[in-house]
Design brief:
The chain is of the alpha+beta class. The chain is built from 4 helices and 3 strands, in the order H-H-E-H-E-E-H. The chain folds into 2 domains: about 1-30; about 35-124, Reverse transcriptase/Diguanylate cyclase domain (Alpha-Beta Plaits). Residues about 20-30 have low confidence and may be disordered.
Amino acid sequence: MIATTQAQTRTAHSAARAGRAHQTRDRRETRTAASLLLNEDVFKALLLRECRRADRCDTSFMLLIAAIDDEDSKPALRQVVDILVSVKRRMDVIGWFDGERAVGLLLPDITTPSADTRAADESR
């Protein structure tokens, strides 16, 4: 009888762990792309750091700012955010700019020809 109780307890613990894992996975899957953006202060600090690094190392970077000037801009801006998050490189930084009315994408170590190509590709 004790062995049965211990087996039931192990089964209950396993089920609880599986349930918690499932809930955690669901939370991760329902996170929006917008929740992955840096806040404006952090984004601007990283932009300043990249400006200084580019000057010091004689490299280039690109900054894209996407803003939609419309009364109902939130849904459209969220779509832009989803697209930018899906195409950004691992080294790129994306964050809110101008409150949450615009989003910035910082592309470090990008040369002018590749920046032009990337900007043209992303605008399509």
